[in-house]
What does this fold into?
Amino acid sequence: MRRFLAFVASVGLLAGPALGAARPVPAPHPAAPQFQPYRSQQGRFSIDFPPGTPQHAVKAITLKGGATSILHQTWVELNHSSVAYMVMYNDYPADYADQAPEDVLASARSGAVDGKTVLSDRAITLNGVPGRAFTATDHDGWHYTVHQYLARARLYQLIVVSDKNHPAADAEEFMRSFRIR
It folds into this structure.
């Protein structure tokens, strides 16, 4: 979870430095997990998580420019925190929602990859909802696969983080299962 908190702090939504990340304990590569459906009524989305009990956190965040928002996070960790799957969402204030979706998504992406090496970046859509898909690595060898969608004033972020010894081969399965309700 610490790797996610560090990522969340770098997404460009929060003020202040990123939190430090703990070094995971190496574990053997497991068989591909069987994904399980998860539905958030409040978040108005569904997704398939790998096996495990989803954890939740809600916190106030400071947006660029000083506005605040509430960040909702749901995640499952595997392999002694070497791989994690997360969905985050927050609602932007009206003045953020007035910006072009591409600009909001580009800004969120830029904050997320600050200090990381971008491996891929492209525009995507989900049933007409604009989004971005990108991957990046950091200097410690952590790999980030991210899909972001801006549905009106709500930013959804799907994130898979894995260390270099435990790649998440099923990140795309996780991403493809996401639906906005």
